[in-house]
Amino acid sequence: MQVCRVASRAFRPKFSCVNIASRYLATSVPKPPSAFSQRLEAGPSFDDFVADNVDPEESGPTKVTLGNTSQPRLPSHLKTKIPAGPSYASIKKDLRGLGLHTVCEEARCPNIGDCWGGGKKAATATIMLMGDTCTRGCRFCSVKTSRTPPPLDPHEPENTAEAISRWGLGYIVLTSVDRDDLVDGGAAHFASTISKIKQKAPSILVEALTGDFQGDLSCVELVAKSGLDVYAHNVETVEALTPFVRDRRAKFHQSLAVLAHANFRPQFECFCR
C-alpha cells in the first residue's frame, strides 16, 4: 500500500484542467468600472486643454512668479551690462592671441565693458606685465604667488606694443606683479615695453604702475626715463596697517621713497601719482 501511494503521488499533475479553465474565465470577465474611472470619463478630455475658445475667467492664472518678490531689486546704477561691442571683442581677441594678461580680467572688474568697449581714443585697458604670478603675498590680493614664478617672456614688450597700436586707445596703464626673483625687479622689461609702445603709437598716453623694486631707486629711474607720461605706485594703506596688510618686503617709507624719487626729478618729464 505504501508503494502505491508514493507512485500515485509522483504521477499526480500539479495543475488540473478545471483549475486552468476557471482562472481563464475569471480573468476574461470584465470588471465593472470603479468610481474613479467613472470620474475620469466624465472629466475634461485632452481637446479641452488645447482649445482656443477658453474663457479667461475660468482658465485661472497664466503667469508663474518664482523667487522672493518681496526682496528689493538692485538699483539701475549698480547693474552692469554684459561686455560686448567691436572694441571689446578686438581687445580680447588680441590679448588671447598674443598671450597677454590684464588686471581687468584677473580681478574680474565689473567695469571691463566700459573700459574696453569705449570708442576710438576713449577705450582703455590695464596690461599686467611679467606674467600672472607674484613673488609677494599681500593679504588683500588674490593674484597667484610663488617664490619661483615662470621666466619672463622676451617677446612680451613687442607683443604688448603691437596689440596696443592696433586698438587705437587713448590711454594705457601698464602694471605688473612683483618680481623679487629678478635682479632689477623687472625694471628693464618695463622700460623696454614702454619704449616700444611709444615707437609704434607715439600719441598714446602711457601710465606705469610699478612696484617698489625693493627700494632700488636706480630701477625707478630707469622706468621713469623710458618715455612714459605718468609714473604711479600704490602705497595701499596707512603706515600703521602696512605690516598687517602688505607683504613683509613692502614697507611704507620704502613706497614713499619711490614716489619722492620719481616726483622730484624734473628731468624725468612725467607726472607722478
The secondary-structure class comes to alpha/beta
The parts where pLDDT drops under 50 for at least 5 residues are none
Give the N-to-C terminal Cα separation.
121 Å
N-to-C order of helices and strands: HHHHHHEHHEEEHEHEHEHHE
What's the number of extended β-strand segments?
A: 8
Radius of gyration based on Cα positions: 39 Å
Number of helices: 13
The major pleated sheet works out as: 6 strands, mixed
How helix-rich are the residues, as a percent range? 25-40%
Strand content: 5-15%
- Please tell me the overall pLDDT: 80
Strands ordered across the widest β-sheet:
1-2-5-6-7-8
Mass-distribution shape = elongated
Plain-language structure description:
- With 273 residues, the chain is of the alpha/beta class.
- It is 40% helix and 11% strand.
- It has a six-stranded mixed beta sheet with strand order 1-2-5-6-7-8. The protein has a two-stranded parallel ribbon with strand order 3-4.
- The protein is elongated.
- The model has no long low-confidence stretch (mean pLDDT 80).
- Residues 117-273 form the Radical SAM core domain.
- Its cofactor is [4Fe-4S] cluster.
- One of its GO terms (biological process) is protein lipoylation.
Question: What would the keywords be for this entry?
Answer:
two-stranded parallel sheet, lipoate synthase activity, iron-sulfur, 6-stranded mixed β-sheet, 273 residues, alpha/beta, S-adenosyl-L-methionine, 13 helices
